[in-house]
Sequence to fold (391 residues):
Amino acid sequence: MSKSILPSILDNDFYKFTMQHAVVKLFPHAKARYKFINRGKHAFPPNFAKVLQDAVDSMASIKLSLEEKRFLNHNCPYLDPVYLDFLQGYCYNPEEVKISQQAENLEVSIEGHWYRTILWEVPLMSLICELFYRETNQMRVSDDEIIQTTSKKAEMYRGLGVTIADFGTRRRHSFTVQDLVVKILTSAGSGFFVGSSNVHLAMKNNIKPIGTHAHEWFMFHAARFGYKMANSEALENWTNVYRGDLGIALSDTYTTKSFFTQFDKKLAKLFDGVRHDSNDPIEFAKMTIAHYQSLGIDPLSKTIIFSDALNYEKVARITEFCNGKIGFSFGIGTNLTNDVGLKAMNIVIKMTEAKPVNQDWTPVIKLSDEKGKYTGDPKEIELAKSILRIE
Fold:
């Protein structure tokens, strides 16, 4: 079997492992389906599906090493030893992934037990990006330019007095670029660079792995408990597993307005803060501050993690507004790991259906605070909007 393009099973976003840990504990019988969405209408070159299939097949050889297991055990005490033993025995099953191509259109779907398939999304997206650039002869980038660009950004962000993390695995230009970017940011100092969502690079650079949960956590809970209970049940289950650790809540799966109706005083006090992932960040900050104040909670005791398509100008605008009003930090993705003079890919892989135990396959959707980011069956989207009274 050929060697994997990916260097490690930990070359993945941290929230995939934290969610997998929770799924193993709470929903071991659940199943999930995912689908690739080509938002940017990228034209894939001939034979791309075969190239991607070969890369996916090679992933079956990746295993968690003893050194990696020790890293997780030492740095993530909230991950049960039973889970770490499970992860040590886990291997990707390429049969869970179906890949096809019609002309320039690529189709990718994933199906299987949720506790297994949950790890596919991020590495698949990073592979699609890297192989697209390789197969279209766009791999040649200058290390010197990456070093210069990233060092300049680090200096600018330090000048703002903010903290940032690398969130750039999914749509990176290549592993080589992300590897170099994280190395540069780490060397620039821990005072402003707080970690990476990429667990392999966090381990390699002796920095903190960053992440909690993603939209699919809430999407599954909607399939299991219904739209009105999705947010509250998802957060309650998260706190039952993590008991106060990993306390940043993602707010926009069914719009932030709907989220805050269920984010009551108990949950608002239990969680350290919320993550912003769509629509206007200033309006989100205003809404969040007002919500904490309405509950008698000092917003300065809480944190917003901003993570939506960030660049320096956007970070500067957010910083100016939030200073002295609420705690805040930034997770920066594509602008760090795919700023090499090429057009960044606009692709996602989203859960489309879930099958909780003793239930049928149920369509799942994401509404977001930005209508352009809605995903899922249009009829199901309209049903959710009607139930949640979203215009």
Observations:
- The chain has two domains: 14-139+347-367, 143-337.
- DSSP finds 17 helices and twelve strands in the chain.
